[in-house]
Specification:
Its EC number is 2.7.1.148. With 299 residues, the chain is of the alpha+beta class. The chain has helices at 69-80, 103-118, 125-132, 139-144, 179-184, 199-207, 211-216, 223-229, 232-242, 264-275, and strands at residues 4-22, 28-48, 52-57, 86-92, 147-152, 156-159, 167-172, 219-220, 247-250, 257-261, 285-290. The mean pLDDT is 95.
Length: 299
């Protein structure tokens, strides 16, 4: 019987993000290239004899009730399969919060995986992904991980070949962005053709394992809203390019910005400049990492 599980909930970036249209149900149809990166939250699960779900976090402002996605994920499976025992979830956040890196969705995905394993529910990854979309559009991808084309509202996933490895510098300015605000102010149905990123070209570049072609096809239509409201996003992109990035882009609805570096030395110098040096005023959190393509969340 499994009594404890230690899981890693990895963050993601969007190598490209296009919004096609606003749907009648209020959601948006999107096409995105998703990529897991090697920074993560720690999610520890402990089986309890007494029924109920309890949540503990290292950040005082995060909810520890049904308003937290990890609670919702555990409740979803435990109610469906009538699990009588209880569960304690300890969540240690290291990914930036409200940053366009799917931290909350990845935490929920880790809990779905963990509850399924701990209580022997026997669900396949595909079955977990079908349930995960009820919690959030990014949850199915966070169960899949790696490099993938995401369509629909984010739940239609096509795995792609792994990206060629490189260094990734990630920086979040000291602001938080409302995803709802960004989508409500995008006016997707009015976008001009040239404002849409070349998703198909990005897929071909990934299949060709051409890092330079991938970087050359970066595009995120949500920058039209977020960057105009928060100019620091454009300043971060420029700083990364000045420090040797092949290209830089905002992830998701922002405000996190990432740059790809072919040179480890250039990436380290960029990290130092953003963390301690001449660009330090632009970012509150800075990470130096790489792509992560392992689909197993347990470590």
């Amino acid at each position: 019987m499994i009594t404890t599980l230690k899981l890693r909930a990895y963050g993601k970036i969007n190598l490209a993000l296009d919004v096609l249209r606003k749907r009648e149900d209020g959601y948006h149809d999107v096409r995105m290239i998703m990529q897991t990166v090697g920074i993560y939250d720690q999610v520890d699960l402990r089986r309890k004899e007494e029924p109920g779900i309890t949540v503990e976090t290292n950040l005082s402002y995060l909810p520890v009730n049904e308003n937290n996605l990890v609670y919702q994920a555990a409740r979803l499976l435990m109610e469906e399969f009538q699990v009588k025992e209880g569960l304690h979830i300890q969540l240690k956040k290291f990914l930036p919060v409200a940053a366009g890196m799917a931290g909350g969705s990845s935490d929920a995905a880790a809990v779905l995986y963990g509850v399924n394993k701990m209580f022997g529910l026997g669900l396949s990854k595909e079955a977990l992904m079908e349930r995960g979309v009820k919690i959030g559009a990014d949850v199915p991808y966070c169960l899949l991980r790696g490099t993938a084309l995401s369509e629909g509202i984010g739940e239609k996933l096509t795995p792609l070949p792994p990206m060629p490895q490189c260094q990734v510098v990630i920086a979040k300015p000291g602001i938080s962005v409302s995803t709802r605000y960004v989508y409500e102010n995008l006016h997707a149905n009015e976008l001009r053709q040239e404002q849409h990123p070349d998703i198909d070209g990005m897929v071909e570049a990934i299949r060709s394992r051409d890092l330079y072609q991938v970087a050359g096809r970066f595009g995120n239509v949500l920058e039209l809203v977020t960057e105009s409201k928060y100019p620091v996003i454009g300043e971060l992109k420029q700083a990364m390019k000045e420090t040797g990035a092949l290209n830089a882009l905002m992830s998701g609805s922002g405000p996190t910005v990432f740059g790809l570096y072919a040179s480890p030395k250039a990436a380290r110098n960029a990290y130092e400049a953003l963390r301690y040096g001449r660009y330090a005023s632009l970012a509150k959190q800075v990470y130096l990492t790489n792509f992560f393509n392992n689909s197993k969340p347990t470590r």
